[in-house]
Amino acid sequence: MTDSDDALLPLDAVRPPASSKDTKGAPAPAPERPVARVAVDSPLPHLDRLFDYLVPDSMHETAEPGVRVRVRFAGKLVDGFLLERADESDHDGRLMPLERVVSPERVLTPEIAGLARAVADRYAGTLTDVLRLAVPPRHAKAESEEPAKQDLPPAEPSQTESAWNAYPTGPSFLGALRDGRAPRAVWSALPGARGWAGATAEAVRATLDGGRGAVVVVPDGKDVALADGEFARVLGPGRHVALTADLGPAERYRRWLKVLRGQVRAVVGTRAAMFAPVADLGLVAIWDDGDDLHAERLAPYPHAREVLGLRAHRTGAAMLIGGYARTAEATQLIASGWARPIVAARTTIRGLGPRVRPAGEDAELAKDQAARQARLPSLAWRALRHGLESGPVLVQVPRRGYLPALACRHCRTPARCALPPTRRTALPPDPHAGTALPMPEAPAEAGHLCHGPLALRGGHAAPYCRWCGRVDADWRCSSCGSPRLRAVVTGARRTAEELGRAFPSVQVRTSGRDGVLATVPATRALVVATPGAEPVAEGGYAAAVLLDGWALLGRADLRAGEEAVRRWMNAAALLRPSAELVVLGDAALPAVQALLRWDPVTHAERELGDRAELGFPPAVRMATLTGVASAVRQMLDEVRLPPDAEVLGPVPVDEAGQERAMIRVRRSGGAALSAALKGASGVRAARKTPDVVKVSVDPLDLI
Question: What digits encode the pLDDT tens for the residues 310-346?
Fold first, then answer.
């Protein structure tokens, strides 16, 4: 074609062909806000910041804040979240473009992104670790489904009296929620199997009536199922979702999308629900905040109570901390003026609470033959027999299994596995020693034995090792040589077996790790359960016995007394009003006294005072460093701690050379401590130090 021919062509035909790339091969930038700030999925603390990327023109419409993206980082394709778009970048060089937008769904809302940043700073963690907890993995099929249209009728007014009328300040709390205000309360719930779920549902409904949303976090799936039923009754069908890990990835993501897209504004679930993206949040609530299931097992190990407190503070939402017992942390919030108590009158508590009677564990065993067979004091045996005349009875056993701990019957030495390790790695050959000759296997010596604790799975089983799993049928005591064993701790299954012999005509049901019962009928039955697995009885239990109080109170744990009160009260609340409750423990102990008087408030206040005197959380902020001894000591030498910080340790924590150090500061220095520890972790990561030091801020297991 000649030049004269070009003049005859239309103008569009002689323009350069449209292309998304310039002459250098780089994609053309988006016409507006061409810079994307991305949180890259990297666990390294020294890379805990946003990185700028170029938004190609082809992704201008889909690369919106909150979407999942794929980017090239350190030569690899990694996931990330696009947090914001900007006009300019502080980076002087050429920006790498976004590789692709995984999905146009904006799964990370600005509120949750800000909350995740605050949680990471609070617990000396990284934003990526928190976002991994906050946003569930994508399920493409569930995301592509068209949202179902719901024409929900108006919620019917409640025909029953409000459960909050039993508390002097309860009606005003509901009124504040309806008016759109933000009350913060610590609620000491009255005894009753279903009372807490119904009252919580009423608080959620009051929040919805005020035009705002609500998030409720409970310890486990059993509590979610109970709350789910009450929410459906009080709110009406289709107005809330329940989120648990048992749903499976597709259904859980489908329900989570309902919340994200605004189809429902009320959520109840386990600890992952604390990050539910409810729009216009008006209430966050947590039930039984002392349960250790509220503490996340993954870094940075946040606690649901603290996360919800941060969320309420940031959004101006109301907060409700409920439980039959009260934790020292909740008491600290009241003492600081951040929250107010909601407590019923003493006359109301006495009318609904059980009749608690303490009993010794050995003094009364000779009074009755059946009691001796079931290792129950006569008082406890009579309470069970009397309760079985009118319905089910509950027996709480603090240990699961059959006989989880054994000892020599003659000298009481703990029974340990006398077998060699399952496998031993051979030592590498010495390159300077020439050709090594094969050596016969040496006999197992005392230093090369398993030494794991022995236990029994059943009445006719041989003892097995809880570490290596092998049967040690030829065991003999290492101290006296006796082959005879005795039980040190009796588990739930052995207790059920003993009770079955003592009450041969009564059905015995167990609830624990092997299978948790949610409910039991009102018929005669002996229900043996471990703490936290007690099923709800229709109409309440007729009686209950709390066995082996020493096992809860004697634990080497800072929270042993608080945890014993919490577990006992959770079980006692399942009884009928004025039903008999026998606790096997010394009546002079403060925890037993709190149960006798049904007074968790005084016990919590005393617990907080003791911790303040000793310098333990929540009166102070404390962090632990755990790892190889040399790594912990090196980090302590390098970290720039706040001026008032106190270092305790390090001390050994196991036989593998792990050590732990504790760092204590005043509550006002908590943010500075977290920042210092995060900076030290970043320095170690940048150096590529091989030994990892685990950093935990305010962990539950301090002792």
Answer: 999 999 999 999 999 999 999 999 999 999 999 999 9
Q: Is residue 472 classed as helix, strand or coil in its secondary structure?
A: coil
pTM here is: 0.86
Q: Is the separation of the CB atoms in 518 and 226 below 8 Å?
A: yes
User: What is the radius of gyration, based on Cα positions, of the chain?
Assistant: 31
Q: Are 81 and 126 in contact (CB under 8 A)?
A: no
Reduce the DSSP state of residue 241 to 3 states and report it: strand
d(CA 344, CA 561): 23
What are the backbone angles phi and psi of residue 418, rounded to the nearest 5°?
Answer: -105, 20
CA 486 to mean position of chain CA atoms = 36
Three-state DSSP at 680 gives helix
* 629-638 per-position pLDDT tens digit: 999 999 999 9
Q: What is the pLDDT of residue 246?
A: 87
Of the pLDDT bands very low, low, confident and very high (cuts 50, 70, 90), residue 424 is low
Chain Cα centroid distance, residue 136: 16
Could you give the residue ranges of the DSSP H alpha helices within 267-404? 304-315, 328-335, 346-352, 369-373, 378-387
What contacts 44, CB < 8 A, 6 or more positions away? Answer: 126, 682, 685, 686
Angle of CA points 451, 453, 455, to nearest 5°: 140
What is the model's pLDDT at position 16?
Answer: 42
Contact (Cβ atoms closer than 8 angstroms) between residue 603 and residue 591: yes
User: Containing H/E element for 334?
Assistant: helix 328-335
Question: Exposed (0-12), middle (13-18) or buried (19+): which is 506, by Cβ within 10 Å?
Answer: middle
Which is nearest to 681 in space by CA: 304, 113, 120?
A: 120
